[in-house]
Every structure is written in C-alpha cells, then in structure tokens.
Amino acid sequence: MGAPLYRSDRLEYVHHMKFSRLLIVLSLGCLLGPSTSSLAAQSLPTPTTGNSIRSRADLEALVRQYEDLLASTAYSDELKDDARSRIEQIRERLEVGDFRLGDAVVLSVDGEPNLPDTVAVQSSPDGPMIALPMFGEIPLQGVLRSELEGRITEALSRYIRTPVVRAQGLMRLSVQGAVGSPGFYVVPADMLVSQALMVAGGPAQNAALGGLRIERGVETLLEGDQLQEELRLGSTLDQLNLQAGDQLVLPADTPGGVWGRIGLVAGILTSVTFLIVQIAR
After folding, report:
1. For 113-128, what is each residue's pLDDT tens digit?
2. How far apart are CA 263 and CA 279, in angstroms?
3. Which of 81, 102, 110, 148 is the most buried (most CB within 10 A)?
4. Which CATH number applies to 104-169: 1.10.8.100, 3.40.47.10, 3.30.1950.10, 3.30.420.40?
5. Domain at 8-44+170-280: CATH architecture
C-alpha cells in the first residue's frame, strides 16, 4: 500500500500544486498531443476552466449542459451514453456528497492548535463524518468538497465565535498497473490525473499511456480518446467526478510497442517528479 501523500509536516505541498500542475500539463500535453490528434470530432464538454473543485452550481450547470446534448440530434448514440453516465455520476454527488470512508480532511482552525491537522473520514449510521476532539462529530452526508469549509465553520460556530476555518478534502485513490509503486494513495481532489500517476512513482518504462483507464469497481468510467483529451486539458480528479476507492489503471505495453516514445515520457515524468519534490521541501 502506498504511503499517504499528506503528512503533518508536509501540509505546505498544497501551495505548490498550481506550479507543479503547470509543469506536468506542459510535459504530458506535448507528448500526448500526437496520440490525441485522432480524437473524434464529437466529444463531451470538458470545461476545465474555473473551479478545480466543482461547486454545486458548477455541477448543476454541467447536468443541464449534458441534458441539452441528449436532446440534440447532432450527437452520436455513443456520446449520449457517455453523457448519461456523467449525469448519473453528478446527480449522485449532488445527493450523497463527495466524502466516503477512507477519505481525509486537512484542517486548520485559528486559535485551536490542539486540533489534528489531518482527520480521517469515518462512517456512522447517518453517513460519513469527521470527529474532532472537544467539538464532537461533524456530519458530511450530502456535503461536496467545495462545501467542506462552510460545513465545518457552521458546526464550530456553536462553540467558537466567528471561527476561521481552512479545510481541504483528500480522497483515497488506487493507482495500479505499470507504475513505479502501485497502491492506494490519499491525494487532494484538485490533483491532476497525471499528477496522481506520478505520486505512484510515474509510468514504468513499459507503460502504455494510451491505454490508461479509470475504474469504479467492475465499471470503466473513462478511457480512450475521451480520457486522453481530459489529460491534455489538465482535468482534476474532482472534475472527473472521482470518489474514494476509484482506480487508475495503466496497462503495460504489448511487445513491439513504441519503446522510444514511452522511455521519453517516463524520463520527463521522472524529471518533473524530482523538481516537484524539491519545490515541496
């Protein structure tokens, strides 16, 4: 099992995420560009501008966008099936919320130095929750990641006058296949898919980057051209509606694959990983 990305002495990592994201998008975008040139003319909306952690309004707007696509005669049945799947995922988020057992919350409350800086999400008869010393349980049923700070602030307002809360949701993600260190990792939800691969040691020399897929149980959520386009655009885990237990699977290349290109990608990813580690120290 991979070690969690966040430790109490590494909380400042989050401040370097934007810079590291830019480096990885530039590296992967240039190299994956040729493989995505064959992307079908029709594709699902991939609105990566704006919030890397989707608000409730963002998600509701996306549902309307996908519903307009379904009502149109200009799109293929395959694309409409993808849109229906996205709508289902988003509606589940809106109803159930984002937090699951295995997730965590990075937390800071002004004037409360004795609170833990990372709190595990637990299960209860009423749904997911976090438990804080002195303040008790805070339910997270139906709460989106973008609503986390507001939910904790509201709960602590019963004990503290105008609490100042900073909170970020982390999700438990499995990275498997041809990567350096397959396993489970607790990562920020605003992390890029490409960054999640690098947390797991980056693609192995025999990795088939074009075969990357995202799974939830036995279901494949995203793969092929659509996923390659999301990679190129720099979509975050949250923007792809991922949740605890979802799995990134990077298969190994078949014999006779394009070893030179794969080696080049692995080398650049390794270099970017080293730079990010140096920045995060």
Report:
1. 999 999 999 999 999 9
2. 24
3. 148
4. 3.30.1950.10
5. Roll (3.10)
